[in-house]
């Protein structure tokens, strides 16, 4: 699926469930490196569960395997909520335009930078049924979280140096002050991007795969969707 966003031509991956009726839908956001087969497979798995799923793009069809190039693009993006909202809204428009999507029943699930985008959609007041993030304990502008109208689940590794305890505390304080229905799961011994299978290129320090927690985190995502966005109501 090609669509414009952030001055680029994005290339997302749309996965459709069996049948022809309208179904609830899920946005799937990738880690900072960009859309890869990992997120494509997750979208496909969600389609097998009965959801319309769009794994969205961050970098105009590119996967940034060079850590320095990835950080050079993602750090300004993480510092600019309006750009994050623009990328999220563009993907959301594509998902809503899909005839199989029930536009009133959409959730957003994101990892790393993709999770920060999912949270920013919530802070922008988008009508979502749930927001799920891993490695994305980003905070917003004062008062922004008050516009989040759905449950928020966040997962993080206990040994994640990019999302340390101080960042966890700031995130949970923001959610609590805004009256959000929030949950935080800390996976013991896990590093940043613990959910992502090993890559065959250099990674930033503090990143590491934890297969047992990766499986648990996926089950937690599926459970969040089953609770807040059941395939049949």
TrEMBL record:
Family: Belongs to the AB hydrolase superfamily.
Keyword Hydrolase applies: yes
Keyword entries, A-Z: Hydrolase
GO molecular-function terms, A-Z: hydrolase activity
Xref: Pfam families: DLH
Organism the protein comes from: Streptomyces luteosporeus
Domain Dienelactone hydrolase: 12-227
InterPro entries named among the record's database cross-references: AB_hydrolase_fold, Dienelactn_hydro, FrsA_esterase
Listed name of the protein: Dienelactone hydrolase family protein
């Amino acid at each position: 699926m090609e669509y414009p966003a952030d001055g680029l031509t994005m290339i997302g991956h749309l996965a459709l469930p069996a049948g022809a009726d309208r179904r609830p839908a899920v946005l799937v956001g990738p880690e900072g490196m960009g859309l890869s087969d990992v997120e494509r497979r997750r979208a496909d798995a969600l389609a097998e569960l009965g959801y319309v799923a769009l794994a969205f793009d961050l970098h105009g069809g590119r996967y940034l395997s060079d850590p320095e190039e990835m950080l050079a693009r993602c750090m300004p993006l993480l510092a600019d909520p309006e750009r994050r909202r623009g990328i999220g809204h563009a993907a959301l428009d594509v998902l809503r335009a899909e005839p199989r999507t029930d536009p009133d029943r959409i959730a957003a699930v994101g990892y790393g930078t993709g999770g920060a985008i999912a949270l920013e959609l919530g802070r922008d007041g988008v009508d979502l049924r749930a927001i799920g993030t891993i490695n994305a304990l980003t905070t917003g502008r004062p008062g922004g979280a008050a516009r989040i109208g759905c449950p928020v689940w966040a997962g993080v590794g206990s040994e994640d140096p990019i999302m340390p305890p101080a960042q966890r505390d700031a995130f949970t304080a923001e959610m609590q002050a805004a009256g959000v229905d929030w949950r935080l799961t800390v996976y013991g011994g896990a590093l940043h991007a613990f959910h992502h299978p090993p890559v065959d290129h250099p990674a930033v320090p503090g990143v590491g795969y934890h297969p047992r927690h990766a499986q648990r985190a996926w089950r937690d995502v599926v459970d969040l969707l089953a609770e807040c966005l059941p395939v049949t109501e």
